[in-house]
Structure formats: C-alpha cells, structure tokens
Amino acid sequence: MSEAIRTFVAVSISEGARRQIADLLVTLRRQPGPAVRWVRPELVHLTLAFLGEVPQEFLAAAIARLSGVGRQHSSITAQLKGLGAFPSPSRARVVWIGTERGKNEVCALQADVVKALRSVGYQPERRPFSPHLTIGRLRMPDDVSKAVTVHFESEPFAIDRVILFRSVLGPAGPVYSVLADFPFAAQTA
Questions:
Q1: Catalytic hit among 10, 36, 45, 75
Q2: CA distance 163 to 169
Q3: 98-153 pLDDT tens trace
Q4: Which of 7, 36, 80, 149 is deepest in the core (most CB within 10 A)?
Q5: Domains recognised in the chain with CATH numbers
Q6: Which of 58, 78, 132, 136 is catalytic?
C-alpha cells in the first residue's frame, strides 16, 4: 500500500488579481472584529474538487482522466467580485471572494472535473458548487458582517488550465505544490 497524499483540484488566479487580494487582506486585517485566520495571498486559489488523502494509485487514474478535461475546455475570462461568508455572515466559519464574470464557465468546468473523478471512485460533496476563493477561516462561528461589506473587484484574468495540487499541512500553514496541470485546448478567451 502506498502513502496517501492530500490533494485537491483547482484553478489559479492571475498575479494581478493576487496582488489585489493582498491589498484587500491588508484592509481586512486592520478592521476590528472577530479573530479570522486570513489566508496568505500566495495560497489563494479556486478549488474545483477537494480529494483529501488519496493513494498514489488513485492519483495515477485521476491524472489520466483529468487530462481529458483540459482538452474539452477553452480559456475562461474570469473576474472576482464581492465578499461573503459560509454558512452566513452572522455565523461565519469561512470568508470568501465570489466569482462574477466567468461563473457559469467555471461551474461547467467543475462539473466536468467531478464527472472525470467520479469515474475513478471520487465521491463529491453533496453541497452545490459555488465558485469562490476562501480568504479567511474562523475557529468558532462569529459575525463578519462588517468585513463582507468591503468592496472588492479584481481585474479580469484568464483561466487556462486545471491544476492538481498536493497539500502538506504544517505548523506554519499549508504548503502547496503542483502534481500535474492540464492546459485547456485553446489558450485564448
């Protein structure tokens, strides 16, 4: 039996949008309010499927199936806009940035990723997919209503590949590394 590897499938955002998120996080950290563990900007991504701890044999099969997903899609022009919280701003556990432009295309991409992974034994979450980027987490539910009123809108950026990431948890937070990436068939929007 091989070692299990903690993994997820995601898309990255542009460096420009990442800088804009970094500026947003500076603003949010200055606000009084509950203790939110804000995500480091370099770790922000849009998760399509969290696989969890999976054996290497599963990864090999998943990689084979995900390569086909990339070939089915062309570049998506996306834009991030607005803040929110799960399950609600008054009892938040997660603070997120929403996807505005490209939302339907990202949802279609996520559905294709899940379909490919299901064929190799993946069991997706039961909750409906909502394209977002997690930017903060709370240990206990708390009210972040004021934080989610901060205006945020990123520059438009291209999504041109799906990435399979490895996540190693450590005392300083997670470290992500690319296991495989799957470029889209057409790279232009």
A1: 45
A2: 19
A3: 999 999 999 999 999 999 999 999 998 888 999 999 999 999 999 999 999 999 99
A4: 80
A5: 4-183 (3.90.1140.10)
A6: 132
